[in-house]
Amino acid sequence: MDFVSEFPLTPTKKHSIWVIVDQLTKFAHFIPVKTDYSLQKLVKLYVSETIFVPSDVDFTQSILWEVHSSPYAMHIGDIKMFYKLQKLYWWHRLKREVLDPELVARTKDNVRFIQDRLKASSDRQNSYAELKRKDIEFEVWDCVFLKVSPWKKAIRFCCKSKFSPRFIRPYQILRHVGLVAYQLELPLKLDYIDEVFHVSKLRSFLCGSSVEN
């Protein structure tokens, strides 16, 4: 292998020839180059200019068949999905970093910070809701609808349909019981039910509202 320089410039601005003689085949390669080429570029140029597969179809297929028939052969398609997943999910420093005490402490601090921020956000939303919330108050002899849950409707009020109303007929308020409860005037057929209900179970009855008899 040798370089012969000081030639006239070629159309591609090259003025030297890289002479390579294959010791096995005694075949010489003459490659036009520049004297300022780096070693990496010369290696790539050597591979591209001197190493080749013959264009004979039968010979090429025989080589490919021998390679793919080998028990150690591996096709890029077999591991292509693995490489894609590796880029997305694999972290080569994962094992060492997980065992790092500084990383554990930093993670705990981040979790604590996130929890504090979530609590502050929840408290702020609750404060806004409290400003708009008003305690519902009723007067004695007002008529109110009574809200019932599905199991109560089925057992106590004999309304077994899943399309039965959530509120039943209006009842009159007899008296206050504490700050948030009222005693209702229930019919005799419901005398086995406690007459005192929390305000959340009552809804105002307005003139013209639908009444469930």
From TrEMBL:
What InterPro entries does the entry give?
Answer: Integrase_H2C2 (IPR041588), SH3_Tf2-1 (IPR056924)
Membrane-crossing residues?
A: none
Q: Which domain of life is it from?
A: Eukaryota
Instruction: Indicate the segments forming the Tf2-1-like SH3-like domain, all copies.
Output: 142-205
- In this protein, which residues make up the domain named Integrase zinc-binding? 59-98
Name it: Uncharacterized protein
The organism encoding this protein is: Gossypium hirsutum
